[in-house]
Amino acid sequence: MDNTLNQLKARLAEIADLFKASEVLGWDMQTYMPPGGGEARSEQIATLQKLGHEKFTQAEIGQWLEELKPTLERLDPDSDDAGILRVAARDYDRARKVPTELVAEIARTTSMAHEVWAKARAEKNFQAFLPMLEKIIELKRRVSACFGEQDSPYDPLLDDYEPGMKAAQVRAVFDELKRDLVPLVKAIAAKPEVDDSVLHKDYDEQKQWDFGEAVIKRFGYDFSRGRQDKSVHPFTTSFSSSDVRITTRLMRNFIPSALMGTLHECGHALYEQGVAPELSRTPLADGTSLGVHESQSRMWENLVGRSRGFWKYFYPQLQAVFPENLGKVDLDVFYKALNKVKPSLIRVEADEVTYNLHTLLRFELEVDLMEGRLKAKDLPAAWNAKVKEYLGLDVPDDSQGVLQDVHWSAGYIGYFPTYTLGNILSVQFFEKAVQAVPSIPADIEHGEFGGLLGWLRENIHRHGRKYTPNELIQRVTGSPLNAKPYLAYLKKKYQALYGIGDEELRHN
Amino acid sequence: MDNTLNQLKARLAEIADLFKASEVLGWDMQTYMPPGGGEARSEQIATLQKLGHEKFTQAEIGQWLEELKPTLERLDPDSDDAGILRVAARDYDRARKVPTELVAEIARTTSMAHEVWAKARAEKNFQAFLPMLEKIIELKRRVSACFGEQDSPYDPLLDDYEPGMKAAQVRAVFDELKRDLVPLVKAIAAKPEVDDSVLHKDYDEQKQWDFGEAVIKRFGYDFSRGRQDKSVHPFTTSFSSSDVRITTRLMRNFIPSALMGTLHECGHALYEQGVAPELSRTPLADGTSLGVHESQSRMWENLVGRSRGFWKYFYPQLQAVFPENLGKVDLDVFYKALNKVKPSLIRVEADEVTYNLHTLLRFELEVDLMEGRLKAKDLPAAWNAKVKEYLGLDVPDDSQGVLQDVHWSAGYIGYFPTYTLGNILSVQFFEKAVQAVPSIPADIEHGEFGGLLGWLRENIHRHGRKYTPNELIQRVTGSPLNAKPYLAYLKKKYQALYGIGDEELRHN
Considering only the top CATH level, what class is A199-343+429-479? Predict the structure, then answer.
């Protein structure tokens, strides 16, 4: 048995190496690759992915997993080996259930769709993208069907990003969120708009860069096991827990772009740097889901990085770096500007409060598409109606509406809700951390983050993929996924910032 | 048949992707990888190399090659497909002849040997390295034996770096070189030492960097298909002919280090950027041998970059960049300093003339070791005697003698002669280029390199590995490998620089 387990682990290690190598090639492509390198690079990445997939779906792996079922039953369920066997079996089942030809057809279609989508968006022409979108939805419904009878055809797709979560569970939590958020956003929109011109002054890029790196060093990001580079779209990538890299982009006339982006990616990176080194080259060496990953990035970006306590410590330092811009600006003015809420059309530019309404409406539309209640051709109208209802805005054209995001053209259906799941979880986890380490809020005011990071490492990071999101949430917080703490956090913070009484919300 | 050929080419393309991916990981390791990333990176590279080797040595490849033998005979021998079939068959035979266990044992041994060698060198203790060296020589003799009866057991090892070349051929050419170089070096050593202090002033590193890049842009290095970065040891690496990267290292107090290093690596890179794009993802997409590769780097570094004509154009520009260091220094003083010859103990610090004696003595010792005339334990004495004979120097300790190079500890036996083969070939090729494009010398004085690069592209670069070194030399120059042009070049240049009459050489 040991021999079979070792054989399996050795094979899984090789497979992990192939996928990690592909990550390195992807990182290089987005940071340092000269323009001419793209074509060969795409071939190389495709080959690594294909070989990794082929190696993982070989029947031999299935036989080994079958032989090892009795071993798994004897093992301590919390042991690394049990985790490896559970996760490898789950991944194997998923990978084998979808026929290779269907996977290939999706790859071909989405590869074409990207260009069609980009052109349609530039030309504000949804009709040009519609046939592609219909095809993608059809293909994703076929993927879903590979998993047999389900409560919702959306479930197997969501499972790609949030193993074990169901559409119904997410919908219940999101409905609760929506019930309270829509009135909150309306109440804020009725207040005078915050002046955030202080954020739009001229900020030297090198100084922005250095300040961001100084902050994440204090967070505990280990530069001997990582680095930051520039890229068009910020991202985090992990080649092992000892080499986790982040990227950012700098905007001279908007300081939150690089800074908050760096804190966000740092949150992802702290998770990956915190995965137990013993899990290297196993299927466990990764975050357990996109939602849990996002809970970490949002926690460091928002709960820490947009909090008044954080800026109590860091604002004097930022003033010292940019005396001409900030020397005479009060902490409260800066803090309020950084937390300005304003309903807008574009998700990626949205603030902490309205952001959730953007993902929420996409989730609702995705589910309707997959469950057959909505046709792709009717998407723009449905989209625009929800934007009006949730954000109070009219969509002037589809480039600012249904065409704005790349996700659907890439076949990512089930991805959007993970952003808001991350927000919800960030508060569930943070409150638990503060309960366990009560000094955390005061520590933040003194630029100390070891207590928080230590708790996250111990309770979340080190496990990697050993537990599913629902298992991890239950294990860490003692309760299931729950929107209430997040809602309470938002209301407390933004009612105070905007001077909104409880009665103003109840009226809606 | 077409189908078999296509299957073979598709497989070879995947194998090429694996090895190129491994190159990307290696480049990153030496440029941007954080210190913590090394362990996982070594595993990833080892896996890619192993899978590439496994895929290439599968019996199926041999069957396809066998089936395609009639096709090869029908094909135009100059066609790409014929080249692919020839080179793939040669590589396959070589890869299959050495048993996997022997390859693995060499990998294990050299992996250990590196550390033992580094320690022995630091401690100037040859005895500590001797057992490892003996083991490596024994293993390489076993590799050689896998190829059956040979004129010399050195031949199959040399073949790794110079396909088709034989020890006897190299020895004849090197003997001719030695006969003339030893007296030349002695005559130079008898002259007053050149004052090269101008090269050792304080040179701003960024300005060095920019100047080097400006020069290679004029050479024709395409930055849209490449880039330069910093690394401890300068190198060139190619991920495709559209992504060929170089590195350099900067020394504030010695300007030739970065500059001449950049021109050298650029020479390698121009070769790789010039391989025909059609050969991408085939076994032909690479330089044909280390010697031919080195002919390109040495040509741009020495024949171009250390020539008086080159500096006639570029020296005023360099003076403008460093007016405080060079403003009052004559071109001739700078040119003489840059071409200073002085016998020294360390190969990598040697000048254009004495360099060859370093590689030559290593070649002679390697052949003696492999042919059994020399025992590893007697190496230091043999080394020191040759250094005395060729360079007129006493070796104070083995760290400055037999222990100085990493090559043997890595199992690279047959590698050293390629450096001098490159020197020899650089002049054979250059003279042919000037014959075909007589304006080249005058062009160089005007900072124009298109004629030279165009000729190299057409006659050498685009073919990749299609022809063996001997085939290429014959095809390009109309004669075999020949030391005479190189010797004539060295004598003309350095007799003039040092005021040495022919009679001074004849006396020796």
Answer: mainly alpha
